[in-house]
Fold:
Amino acid sequence: MLNVLNKSIDESRQGEAYAPNTSSQNPVAKKFFIESYGCSMNFSDSEIIASILHTEGFGATKHEEEADLIFLNTCSIREKAELTVRKRLTEFKKLKRKNPSLLVGILGCMAERLKNKLLDEEKLVDLVVGPDAYRTLPNLIEEAEGGTKAVNVLLSRDETYAGISPVRLNSNGVSAFVSITRGCNNMCSFCVVPFTRGRERSRDVHSILDECRDLFENGYREVTLLGQNVDSYYFVDSATNHVTDFALLLKQVAEINPLLRVRFSTSHPKDITDSVLYTMRDYANICKYIHLPVQSGSSRLLQLMNRTYTREWYLSKIKRIKEIMPDCAISSDIIAGFCTEEEQDHLETLDVMKQSEYEFSYMFIYSERPGTLAAKRYEDNVDMDTKKRRLSEIVSMQNNLSYESNKKDVGKVFEVLIEGDSKRSNLQWMGRNSQNKVMIFDKTQDGKLKKGDYVNVVVNEFTQATLFCTIVN
Ligand code: 5AD
Ligand code: SF4
Structure:
């Protein structure tokens, strides 16, 4: 499943708002404000939505108070994500009172999951639009402006939004997400995504390569190829019958330019192939970082989760990655307290974490999602206190692993891509190495370096989250 790479492919950027004020080009244009929740797929979708709205003459605003349209691009993966959106909606009531013509739309997975029910429950909502229906947004807005509540939650078998050139929101101008597949065919029993995002489909390879080339020409230096399960990317050119799998796609993106870094997320352990690993090894600009969610370290639970691998099989995959790329960083998603989880299962999860030496993990308490296989088949029978205690043990384990991993980097030299000023000081740069670790270092006096440049640094000090470095020549 898809999780974010910068702080991870998931909750890091939750609720992050908006982008460029293009409305200044047309002072009478209606203004929209969009806020994204959940995974990076949603952030990427918001950029597609912004592009569709721009083409229709709508302008973007960063300020919800001046918007004519407010969109929340929502996530259903855990109950908490949905509750956050519900809470956010109440904050718009005041704005609507001030401006009765303000339209509020719920987009994304919650729209898909709750459909018309959202309109009944949330009187404030005017539009409900699922993840495959964004092309119809202009018509739906027109309907809503006419006073009719507008809904389109039809899922599609082939919509990939190929041909839509995303408008970059909240961009640092250096790294961008590029969506390569949509939907998911894996039926992990805890997961609502196959129901909200539909069947898996791969986007036309030509449109992916065009988008990446275009980004590079516009100064971007890093692309993250996104999909719920990128390793199952499979595109057949209808004219030539030529097949592109994920390894070939990676190679083609990497060959755009050696200065363009390539990342990807998420990999399902069952699908990542040796051919992908060899391609990663062979191209210096394919980052040595894999997000390989384990979910649980217990084979019994993995079976209940329908993950289709055992603990031993997962560990052999980790071994294979390290054999082929000893410097490859690995991160994971872990769920605490899935149905029937016993203490022994939990201990096995901690043990898999330790053996895998994860650099990073996204860690969650199990939250039952209506309609999923687990909700239908298994009882959510681990009490909340136990879930919380197990989660905190998982978090402590990860904190130790991150600390130990960073400790090993002291004295080593890494190539860093500069993303911008460090949060603390504009006298320091922040960037990442290939392994996706955050590196902070002083700017040079001559002011020659800039965002998007590569520089070699040596690690002097560290915390569990950050490496502090100095530039080397
Ligand atoms: N409860 C808790 N975590 C979940 N995830 C997916 N569904 C659930 C759920 N019902 C987690 C998985 C997935 C990540 C994106 O979210 O770990 O990989
Ligand atoms: Fe990821 Fe499994 Fe959910 Fe698909 S079903 S999105 S692989 S967790």
